[in-house]
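2024-03-11 09:14:02 INFO worker-7 job=invfold-0412 stage=load source=structure_tokens
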């Protein structure tokens, strides 16, 4: 394996950070790298590093420490809010119904993990049904890959991945009338727990045309998910390029604590033990996909995900390509990602575009307006993270336009500040009118309104919510410019 860089956010003292920011001191305590020697010995431009690279690394470490410090309060707040929302659901659906049951001693407690217990994402956007243009989803009826039916299936599957296994199964089988295959809780080497969720479904139980794989994204109150998104650690893989280390760990491809494990899993995938094979997302999904494609000889597969799930969705076929899984990749129909962060550098961009964008484009990256997550990690002359393929960008009016890169690609700049806050105000106003203009299914919940208001505090956070992406798909209209 080539070079690697690990940003040590936990074990670095504040004094070390100050020295590193000021003149590059204590670099070995802030960064672990495969390269040997000081910045000067390696020929690095110290002035450029101090101006850009050091500043952003220190800021990312400080933000990660703040998020880590708030991990337990965030987790507790998320659990309480989620329980309260489900408590209202099973007691009439609103506060009045709950109070009525409370005074009559008829309060019903929600059962966590049941097929009616929704996540916070599920309460931000309560829609579970596919859009009205779904009558029968068959491969020959989809036509072009950019058709709304297929796009809607993918965005809804990306949103559904945030729910528990019972909700996913009930939705796929009883609402979508499709075949649920399996839901997996996989080991995440970055978080050191089973926090990588993915589910697999088919459009039909027998002789399926489509096999869909959906990875779960960043949960609103999961500190580790947010820390992974803003981590700048990477490792360089020969032929592929530099890849975000946190996303590799989320797929179960080794750990930064022992870099050799990444090298082992990438160079010799068949060396993974049976026990490891059962708990890591890449190997579980790959092996299940092999079996499903044998069971359904006409089927092709789609990979999708929102946020962190989008990063895993594009990284999964990238590793398949690296492992020369030619037979599997010949059956790839498309990759759809929504609000996906960057996963690698320009070399990875070239590697993937040669296989999934040419001669026929199979990769569709959808970005809504001021969403912060697609703009990190930074794409500048120091970090060099790059998106690949073409971006399908939707503005705050849901007008669609294909672009090489979304506007304000690093989410920074004085000229963008005022427009960002104006759009945040517009999104609050728009949210109050959606149900009246487009119909009851577009009416925002009070939870959705709560997160929209957060856009006034930090533009780009509320824009990341999956309900915006569902609206983009269903209400989007092409730009004539």
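2024-03-11 09:14:09 INFO worker-7 stage=emit residues=481
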């Amino acid at each position: 394996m080539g070079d690697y860089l690990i940003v040590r956010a936990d074990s670095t003292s504040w004094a070390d950070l100050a020295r590193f920011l000021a003149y590059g001191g204590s670099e070995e305590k802030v960064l672990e790298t495969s390269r040997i020697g000081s910045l000067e010995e390696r020929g690095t431009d110290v002035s450029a590093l101090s101006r850009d690279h050091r500043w952003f690394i220190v800021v990312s470490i400080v933000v990660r420490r703040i998020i880590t410090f708030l991990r337990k309060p965030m987790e507790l707040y998320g659990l309480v809010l989620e329980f309260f929302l489900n408590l209202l659901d099973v007691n009439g659906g609103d506060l009045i119904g709950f109070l009525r049951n409370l005074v009559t001693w008829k309060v019903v407690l929600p059962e966590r993990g049941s097929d009616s217990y929704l996540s916070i994402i599920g309460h931000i956007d309560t829609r579970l049904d596919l859009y009205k243009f779904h009558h029968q989803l068959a491969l020959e009826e989809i036509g072009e890959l950019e058709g709304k039916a297929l796009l809607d299936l993918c965005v809804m599957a990306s949103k559904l991945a945030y729910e528990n296994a019972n909700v996913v199964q009930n939705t796929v089988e009883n609402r979508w009338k499709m075949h649920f295959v399996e839901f997996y809780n996989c080991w995440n080497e970055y978080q050191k727990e089973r926090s990588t969720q993915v589910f697999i479904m088919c459009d039909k139980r027998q002789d399926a045309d489509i096999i869909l794989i959906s990875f779960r994204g960043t949960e609103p109150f999961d500190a580790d998910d947010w820390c992974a998104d803003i981590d700048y650690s990477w490792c360089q893989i020969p032929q592929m390029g530099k890849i975000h280390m946190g996303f590799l760990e989320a797929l179960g491809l080794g750990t930064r604590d022992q870099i050799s494990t990444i090298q082992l899993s990438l160079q010799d995938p068949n060396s993974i033990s049976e026990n490891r094979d059962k708990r890591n997302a890449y190997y579980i999904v790959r092996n299940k996909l092999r079996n499903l494609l044998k069971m359904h000889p006409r089927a092709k597969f789609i990979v999708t995900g929102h946020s962190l799930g989008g990063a895993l969705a594009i990284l999964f076929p990238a590793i398949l390509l690296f492992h020369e899984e030619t037979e599997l990749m010949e059956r790839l129909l498309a990759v759809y990602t929504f609000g996906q962060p960057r996963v690698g550098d320009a070399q990875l961009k070239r590697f993937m575009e040669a296989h999934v964008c040419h001669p026929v484009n199979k990769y569709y990256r959808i970005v809504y307006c001021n969403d912060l997550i697609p703009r990190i990690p930074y794409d500048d002359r120091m970090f060099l993270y790059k998106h690949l393929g073409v971006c399908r960008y939707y503005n705050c009016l849901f007008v669609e336009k294909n672009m090489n890169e979304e506007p304000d690609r690093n989410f920074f700049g004085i000229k963008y500040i005022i427009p960002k806050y104006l759009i945040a105000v517009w999104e609050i106003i728009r949210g109050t009118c959606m149900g009246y203009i487009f119909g009851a299914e577009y009416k925002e919940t009070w939870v959705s309104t709560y997160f929209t208001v957060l856009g006034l505090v930090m533009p780009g956070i509320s824009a990341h919510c999956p309900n915006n992406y569902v609206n983009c798909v269903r209400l989007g209209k092409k730009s004539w410019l």
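2024-03-11 09:14:09 INFO worker-7 stage=report msg="The radius of gyration is 22 Å."
2024-03-11 09:14:10 INFO worker-7 job finished
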